[in-house]
Design goal:
With 133 residues, the chain is mainly alpha-helical. 75% of the residues lie in helices and 0% in strands. The chain has two domains: 2-51; 64-129, Winged helix-like DNA-binding domain superfamily/Winged helix DNA-binding domain (Arc Repressor Mutant, subunit A), CATH 1.10.10.10. It has seven helices and no strands. α4 (74-84) packs across α7 (119-129). The radius of gyration is 33 Å and the shape is elongated.
């Protein structure tokens, strides 16, 4: 039974090969024209992507000048980043391995340094200053 299947597959392959050969002989110029056009299309797309690609943006540095001017400590920056990620005081405390009261103190100092009334104001001002992405 397997031999019959192999013979059938070989016969089908031979018929398809002959059909392909007939197509190439009958429409050889069109096939070549299509292949050349497809090659130029691919080349044009590649060159277009290379030429009109947006320049790479500079890496985010967190505006160290603004942080230094405002006096934001590295720990306060960690709290600010966690606030921007939408974490609660308890989640931030667990993440930084400090007490929730310490997080509250850091948040209060951040609000004062960024001259903000709410956490969302502080996050927006930090983004405007380039401290947060």
């Amino acid at each position: 039974m397997a031999i019959y299947g192999l013979c059938l597959a070989a016969g089908t392959l031979a018929l398809e090969w002959l059909d392909y050969q007939r197509l190439v002989w009958a429409h050889g110029e069109e096939v070549m024209l299509f292949l050349v056009a497809a090659g130029f299309l691919a080349l044009g797309a590649f060159v277009g992507v290379q030429l009109f690609r947006a320049p790479p943006s500079p890496p985010f540095d967190g505006n160290p000048r603004a942080r230094a001017t405002l006096g934001i400590s590295p720990r306060e920056l960690n709290v600010l980043q966690a606030l921007a990620a939408g974490r609660s005081n308890k989640e931030i405390a667990a993440l930084l391995r400090v007490s929730p009261n310490t997080v509250k103190t850091h948040v209060a100092r951040l609000l004062e340094k960024l001259d903000a009334r709410r956490r969302t104001d502080a996050i927006n001002k930090a983004r405007e200053l380039g401290i947060l992405p």
